Amino acid sequence: MLxxxxxxxxxxxxxxxxxxxHGAEGAAAGAAEAAHAxxxxxxxxxxxxxxxxxxxxxxxxxxxxxYWAFGVKSKLPAWTTVGLLGAxxxxxxxxxxxxxxxxxxxxxxxxxWIGIDLSPHQEGGLExxxxxxxxxxxxxxxxxxxxTGLATLIALYASEYMAHDVGPGYCRFFFAFSxxxxxxxxxxxxxxxxxxYLGWEGVGLCSYLLIGYFFTKxxxxxxxxxxxxxxxxxxxxxxxxxxxTFVQFGTIEYAGIFEQVDAIRASGGELPFAVKxxxxxxxxxxxxxxxxxxxxxxxxxxxxxxxxxSALIHAATMVTAGVYLIARTYPLYTLNxxxxxxxxxxxxxxxxxxxxxxxxxxxxxxxxxxxxVSQLGxxxxxxxxxxxxxxxxxxxxxxxFKATLFLCCGAVMHGFAGQLDLRKLSGVWGMKGWRIVxxxxxxxxxxxxxxxxxxxxxxxxxxxxxxxxxxxFAVLGWIALITxxxxxxxxxxxxxxxxMGPGEFEPGDEHHGDAEDEMTAEDGHDNHAGxxxxxxxxxxPHPPKWAINTVLAILAVGSLAVVGVYFIDTEHHGWVGxxxxxxxxxxxxxxxxxxAAAHEIAGAHGAEASGAELAPGTFxxxxxxxxxxxxxxxxxAIGILIAAFLHGPTGFGGxxxxxxxxxxxxxxxxLKRTFAPVGKWAERKWYVDELYDFLFRIPLWVLAHICYLFxxxxxxxxxxxxxxxxxxxxxxxxxxxxxxxxxYAVGMxxxxxxxxxxxxxxx
Amino acid sequence: xxxxxxxxxxxxxxxxxxxxxxxxGVTLYHYLFVSAAMMAIGVVGFLSRRNLIxxxxxTELMFQGAALALIAFGRLHLNxxxxxxxxxxxxxxxxxxxxxxxxxxxxxxxxxTLDSLAWAELKG
Lengths: 763, 124
Description:
The complex is a heterodimer of chains A (763) and B (124). With 763 residues, chain A is mostly helical. Chain A contains 29 helices and 5 strands.
């Protein structure tokens, strides 16, 4: 142990050697250096007010816990949560004007959380420091803006959505909801990797708690466990990555790490493998949390949770934590181009695979889940092709339109007694009271499909263009472009099936995610008058009330308005690009300004790096930045038209090319028969779950049973054998104890006679 | 004095050396034989009978057989230790007889029989 400890300073010395002695300086000096590196000034002591941004949700959590303990049976938890999260959002806006707008970086010190002196007998020795502190730069603020903003809106939505469960369940829901926002804030705002890890595990816990919200339903429990376990696999990588970071850099605070990375980059030279391995390890954590290949299968199952949870945690915020992690530690990634190549390929392939699965699903919430996986793939592709601005912009727009889409699906599910099958719903647009939901859904669909001039269109194009610009990634560019077409198809498949066409529906059995809804409705809760009948004849869909409608309207307008930020600060590809440019996630793409890194990236990808200058890639001979605007627009439109042709109703609702006249059947059924097995495979998610079962679950099951048999027969055999020996001896001797007085007497007399005989013989 | 063989010793020290000899010729052997016979009858009776009172009487018979041997040896050695011991044995036997008969009465009340087979409940 002592030896191990004494080794660590040596490693740290090595690291500081590599960075020309910049290694073991104080945090303040490190902060100053890092600030110099990103061309901004760090305010010495940050504004302590911003500590309230994570602490207000924590207070909300404590209050909801108290309500829970005192058995509050009103909507009080919802209003508490909405109020405190709203205050948190307000403070974030304040932080935006203080930090992100002028482009400065603040480090706010809260309190010393962990401080372990690893070399106590040495002045200025190695110390593991993890403060409860905030690292506030424009990237942090960008993330916090949509995390707290959407959390507030979705809490408002949930106040109505969860209304059937008022009581302990309601308190429990908002308890976990507030805890989630606290954990997410800690993840995003923490000034060191350990605080990020705290938040990382915290959001994982909340995800588990909320997926398993309907804990009496076996499928929800299974989904919660699946999400938790798959995330642990990723988290192992993250944990090792953080340890490696400490061993290599002697600190886990961002400021110190970035300073050293800058020094390393300035000095050049060969890096030890251990440093290069750090991004590879962090990446594993990102893949788990953001549902990328090969760890994506938990996210679609996570739809078992209540829909507001799906919207906030599993679409808008938590799943972007992986993107944030890579963006935050982008300086480390620039040290190892191979890591970025892997990120790009994983992202691109995930996008394509998830899109193909999404095309064949019938559960609209699951379609949205696969589209989330697919869009997260785009974000990773963006990070991989050095377009961190594109990735961040896509995170930002996606947060809006995917939250809108999920909340619309939730409203439909809520109103039609849990029905989510697109074959059993049709023509919601024409029904009374559903117009706001329908319009919001259309806006969300247009964004997701990348319809020209929507926010989703611009953010996706930034990534697509960078993929074509960066040499060696053209294949991924094409994959992403095809995926864009598939995305448009499956998005509008939902639209044309569920919202257009003749008004038909078949109410759900309330067992899909709202199992408890039915019970409370039958208990006579007045707010669910429409839920009365479940036979179908007396069922009336109940359209959403003001809370859901307000939130949907705000989000839909927001999704449309986000496009505006693309035209602010055009120098950096929009407002988001500007924010990323001011942060450490910024990395000058070498294909705009040719540099040494270009060779590294290209070399890592196997392209020829011998040329003195590497030309930026092109899209069929055109400049990708311009050509892609047209190409992706056309591809998206083709996808929408195919969806209209296959699933659209007759007349205007199907753009005059559809032919569907009832809910259950469409032209796609014939097409599906033609390509018989393929559609089936896609519907069964390419059997990936079954493959994982075969590769991991079954071998583990067999191993477990072998262990069981070993335990049962070998271990237990020995123990039982020891116990059985006296029992066997006993059962052999037992007949002698026959209870007959005379036979005992015979024994005595016989024994005496025997002893006498022996004595007589011996003497 | 003859050689100190056991046979000679027993034959010499008959029980009639005190002058008055109404049973001259009765040696230790006779006493021991009676003692052994009482013992044997007691054992055989104890083993072969199932009536609890008879069995108890048989144990008494064995007691007295042993007591007789003690008295005979005491007389042989011309001291009183044998007799003293027998007095103690008789005292104990009396107490034991009271206890044992009491037990037998209670056992009889429980099962209305004196058959010892009726009390085989502790068999393994």
